[in-house]
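Cast an eye over my tokenised protein here and flag anything odd:

===
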Amino acid sequence: MKAIKLMLMLSLSALAYGCSGGGGDSATPGPGGGGSGESATISGKITYDNVPHNPSTNGLNYNATTQDPARGVTVQLIQGSTVVDTTTTDNSGDYSLTGETGATYTLRVRAELKQTGTQSWDVVVVDNTSNNAQYVLDSSSFQVDSTNFTRNLNAASGWGGSSYTSTRAAAPFHILDRVYDVIDKLRVVDTNLQLDQLVINWSPNNIPQSGSLNTGRIGTSFYSADKIYLLGAADTDTDEYDGHVIIHEWGHYFEDNNSRSDSIGGSHGGGDRLDMRVAFGEGFGNAWSAMITDDPIYRDSLNSGQSQGFSINIEANNVSNPGWFSEGSVQSILYDIYDAGNDDTVALGLGPIYDVLVGKQRNTEAFTSIFTFMTFIKENNPPEVAGLNQLLSDQNIQQNIDIWGSTETDDEGEPSVIPVYNEFNPGDAQQLCTIRTFNSSTTSMNKLGNRKFLKLNIPASGSYTLRLTPSSGEDLDGYIYQQGNLVVFDDAGGSSSVNITHNFTAGTYVADVSAYQTDSCFNVALIQN
């Protein structure tokens, strides 16, 4: 997922890949910039080298490289330092600009997707290891010798047969083209599609090590705060050609801006019993990549020559440790709702899924999970309830669920994880317990049972206190939310009681309470002041 000259275009704060137009004209550059004054159409096709995966190894197959159209990208006609005309490529990568015969120009293709109006988006690809310079592809200079002049331009992969031997100019444009795939589908289901600005950070220096982002030590490909970071370290782990990885991370951006995710992130893998918010977020990201590509096989290339990798069958129903806490169960259910495979009991397509994500899921009182999504998709599609219930049953999840998972019985042998939410009215007190049964020594606090979820019923506006009292000196933290928004919290640490006091308006709130260090039991009380 990942004779060229590399230079820094300081005036544009852009990293320029200057290269001649593949398959273009053979005109000789003229000595100056002036033209004859006769209008000329300069047109052609913008492409990039697309390297597919080898299905048998899940690595990249450079021998099968194709030149695919760079769709929706900005193309500029430049004379000296002046931008003469600007356009965007169409769905076939074609562009058309207006100049003059006799004039000398260069083409510049900017690694961006931009549109304003009723439907709008703004996506750029930058190098986080080069002062966030935006990638652009520059042609060599050419002189226009006819009123209809053709100039094609291809961004090459940089692959030399056994290693990368020149600039990897295609990488930013393959990344953008996967985002184009997403936008192309969403613009059909939402005629008023509005997407916030997104910056995608890719560099051949981005390695799977922790450290400073501006040196490329990004740890892994990830999304955070309207930015996606993608790995690019050759012979280690590259993601610029891993379309499912790119779209997965874009899915997290979409949740953050157009839908909602309450996921706390952290390490996760197949078969993990996860915090239900993490299970939904990661399962959604995987399923989303399959929906957008109409390809349920998620592939990630890595290792020497990008020749190896791994794959996940998103559509597989036989997942390890299925349940409401499983990303495998979530991705299987969501993709089965979308597609029309022979094993599926429903096939709603993208529209109904999108409607839930930008509608009821965004405003739910509960934490986002498979419980909220499935409650709402059933509410919105009554004729499909039986089929949707079968998908739940196939993943060992109760059919008659609500947003609180109040009917769920699967505790995986640990009684303290059920009920999913402990409910509190003013004056109520309960002893609750957290566990680390499903954690390894290196994982974060994002597994099943690490946290207790509380449903807090506030009958009238006023001051209330959520009191957390440790039984043996545990460090307790508490966070209170309303419809996904953090209202008040206390994570100061210490071994004494935690009193989270706030002037609440009447309504339903949810709390996330955790105890660090060990398995722990503690007392919880909701007090009206």
Remarks:
- Residues 259-409 form one domain.
